[in-house]
Every structure is written in C-alpha cells, then in structure tokens.
Amino acid sequence: MLGTMQERQLTLDHFVNRAETYFPDREIVTNTAAGLQRTTYGAWADRTHRLAGVLDNLGISAEGRVATFAWNTARHLELYFAAPCSGRVLHTLNLRLFPEQLTYIVNHAEDEVIFVDRSLLGLLVPRVGEFNTVKHIVVMDDGVPNEIPSFDGGPEVHDYEELLAGAERTEFRCADEWAAASMCYTSGTTGNPKGVTYTHRSTYLHTMAAMLADTIGVTEADVILPVVPMFHANAWGLAHAAVASGAKLVQPGPDLSPGTLARLIEEEKVTLAAGVPTIWMGVVEELEGRDTSALRVVPCGGSAVPTSLSKRFEEVTGLPILQAWGMTETSPVGSVAKVISSLEDSSEEKLDELRASQGLPVLGVELRVVTPDGEQVPWDGETQGELQAAGPWITNGYYNDERSAEAMTEDGWCRTGDVAVMLPEGYLKLVDRTKDVIKTGGEWISSVELENEIMAHPAVAEAAVIAVAHPKWAERPLACVVLRDGAEATRDEILAFLDGRVAKWWIPDDVVFIDEVPKTSVGKFSKKTLREQFADYELPGVADA
Ligand code: ADP
C-alpha cells in the first residue's frame, strides 16, 4: 500500500523562497577589504534570481558547470543558489590547489564560466590559457584594484555587477531532486583531485541534518560564521543551513587572521563559528578577554581536534569545541562528538575521550568499521578497521573517474581511507588516515594520538608526527614540533613528557623543531610535505646499527 503523502521534490529553491518570504530583513554580513558590507536575505534572494537570468544571458548550457574562485562572501552565496536553482551545477574551485590541479579540475568538470573575486585574479589569470571549456570569466570586484584582464580569442571578461544590473529576475528551474546541484573536488594529496557531485536531494537532506538539535542544531536565531571556505566541502553545509533556517550569516571574506576573526565573533555576536583546528589554535588566544557570551557552539573537524585545544577553548570561552567528522565524499557531516545525556556525568577523563573522538553518526548516516577479514570491529576501543559510510548524502563514487570502483565496497559503502576503532559507548574514534599511520614492526602507531599528546605540552604550539624509514622496524615516528612564541623545551623534555602518556614503543625516535607545520589547501597539517622534507632524515642510532 502506498501512503497518501504528496510527491514533492527536495530542491534548493525551497530554501531561497523561505528565506526571502519569512526572513527578508535578516542580515548577511561580508568582511571586505573596504570594511563590513551588509545586505539582507530579501535583497540577496532578488539578486540570486537575477543571477539565474545572468547565466541564461551568458548562454550557459542547461546543465552547465558554473565555477567559483572566491572567498566566503554574500556574492558567493548568490552563486551557491543561482547555479543549482537554474538547473546548472555549481563547481567551487579550491583557491589553494596547485596550479596544475586547478587546470585539471576546470577541464575535468568542463566549467563553462568562472566567477572570480577581483582580489584573486592573480592566481587564476595565468592558468586561463589552459582551460578548454571556459567561455566567460566574470569578475566580482571586491575592492582590490587588480588589473582586469582580457584574453585575445579566449574567454570573454565581464563585470559581475554590470551583468546583474542588466538581467531580469528569472524564475528558478529545478524540478528534479536527483539532478546534480554542485560539485567539489577532494584536495588530492595523491594523484589528481577526485570530483564528488551532490544532488539537490542530498544537499537538502544534509542541510536538515545540520539543523538537528543532536548535531549542530542550526536555527534562525543563530549568527553563523563559516571560517571554513565555501570551496571546502560546501562550507560544511553551513551556507545552506543559514539560508534554510534564516540565520544571520557572517562571511569572513579574505581576511582569516586570528585577530579579525576574534573581532567578528565579538562584534557580530556570533553564536556558531566553524573551522579546522589550525584556525582555532590561532583564534583562541585572540578571544581572551573578549565578550564571547553569544557563542553557543564551535564545530570543528577536517582533522582531529587536540584535547589541549578544546580545553583551552573552554578556558577562554566556557565552551569546549564540538568535534565533527566528515569528508568531501560525505557532504561532509557524518558524525558529531556530542556527549549524550546518559554520559554527561562521566569522569573528566571519559568526557575528554568522548570529545576527542569523532562521535556518533548523524541521523541518516550509517558508519561501520571493518577489519581486513570483512568483520565489523567489536566496541572495545582497540580493534582497528577501515571506516566505511553509507547514507543519502554519501557519495556513490567519483564524477567520471576510474577510481570510483576502488572507493566503494561491493555492497555499496564508501571507503573512507580512515582507520578507526569503536569506543564501548558506540562512539567512533579515528586512529589515523591510512596513509599517515606509522607501521612499525608489524604494529601501527596513530600519528594523531601522538600529536594529541605532544600538543598537551605547555610549550608546544603545533606538532605533527610522521613515519621515517627504519632498517629494523620499517618505520619509526619522528615528531615535528613548533614551540609557542617565547617558550622553550628540549627534545628530551618532549620525549620524557610522553613517557607514561603513550606506550613505550610509541615514543618517537626523535624530535625536530620547525618554525611552522606546512598546511594543505584547506588548512590541515600537510604530513605529505613533511614526509618529503624529512625523507632522508637519519634517526638517532640508525647509523651505528
Ligand atoms: P582532504 O581529503 O582534501 O583533506 P576532506 O576534508 O574531504 O579533504 O578530508 C576528509 C578527511 O579528513 C577524512 O577522511 C579524515 O581523514 C579527516 N577528518 C575529517 N574530520 C576529522 C576529524 N574530526 N578527526 C580526524 N580526522 C578528520
């Protein structure tokens, strides 16, 4: 028997219509080189409809890919909806990809137009000659007076505001929830980046998941600061959730310096601010002494949140960081490490462990940790396996890519490449990324856990642990440590600090002090770069062995 419910498509136009109808005066604030710019959902929605008209006027094809090369701004949010709501596909380009990877993804996605912030022209223009399908470059003037280029025989160059001024308000066309709405490429630490395409349906459901009280719980009363870029896995769903709920949105633009972010949090009375751990490591110190009473949740993921960071955050703001796990392939939110009510009275140590874990799967997502024999691991906190994910906003492979098959299991689960255990409480705990785990004498050491412990040392600002080749043990850990300004610690002090905190055989063979841990294009520790840098590093004792 079928139910009596209406067959309505889960398409993104609904979010825009709702914000325009019920929250027309809610603000979208953008921090620009010229200061804060304020607009409202009412004005934004009207411009978004006109932008759909601009895409028609430019002759972008029915399912054409509309690329953005832009900071988090109100204009970027217009593109976020105008492209999918006019039947096209938004493609957010990562500003920090290697140039050849940028060219690869533009050509692979067959982008027809690129919308670029004027301040970013310097990064894009030198590559334009290599783009095979781009017919238009639309410059969004953000007040940085870079020269406007022209391309002889190449793409036409336009001004965003001029195009908008010349376009009519156009009705949205997106009738099929299964149609692609947007696409995002992984940052490609090995090989070329891989493209994930999100449907209207997956984005709609993922947005609702971000609004669940047991996850991030976005509501209309929130003031959201997505420090996470709009090109990094959909700004973790926050741009969509802001529009869907009618929450005020604070877009940080190009200036992601800790002082500016801290000021925005205080002055705009931000309730929800999200970014990768390396962002908060800087911002937390700038929040000291500021009024952060409006803050209610700080979701953080992309890499493991060190306990020391969460504790420092709690010291300064009264709030521990809320860790979430996800990946481009999972839209991205897959699990959230909220302490559930029945565990709230746990020991301090247990609470730390739960907050340092990746948490419980979000309603709608299924997660399993599978051993090489194909068995799910027991909830013992010890048995390791590969984390696999399934659900309506988890990808089923990559866009037009031979690597899709190896990314999926035979029964249709997405293989994450993360090694994990299950805690007795059912919380997921990531051990490491498969490629970062240190394989020593047939056993595995979690670089993440070692880093977590080293960063608990008061003199340490950042620590990344990598595998270095060892003649006897295959690999041994090397700790790369950045000391806090003015702080001092020796190699032996760091190693002695670890004694008793981790198993003896986990203690790194050496410590090197560096000025900064290199970061990936989305601000994570780039252990690949460190591994290259220390590829020939001779561990103590090895030469005499
Ligand atoms: P990239 O692969 O370019 O880093 P993603 O953001 O898609 O881009 O990366 C997803 C990966 O980030 C996950 O597979 C996992 O290894 C890591 N990750 C995400 N969230 C967490 C977290 N809370 N703790 C530890 N690792 C995380």
Automatic annotation (TrEMBL):
GO biological process: fatty acid metabolic process
Keywords on record: Fatty acid metabolism, Ligase, Lipid metabolism
InterPro entries: AMP-bd_C (IPR025110), AMP-bd_C_sf (IPR045851), AMP-binding_CS (IPR020845), AMP-dep_synth/lig_dom (IPR000873), ANL_N_sf (IPR042099)
Domain AMP-binding enzyme C-terminal: 449-524
GO molecular function: ligase activity
Annotated ranges, domain AMP-dependent synthetase/ligase: 22-399
UniProt xrefs under Pfam families: AMP-binding, AMP-binding_C
Family: Belongs to the ATP-dependent AMP-binding enzyme family.
Name by which UniProt lists this protein: Putative AMP-dependent synthetase and ligase
Source organism (scientific name): Candidatus Neomicrothrix parvicella RN1
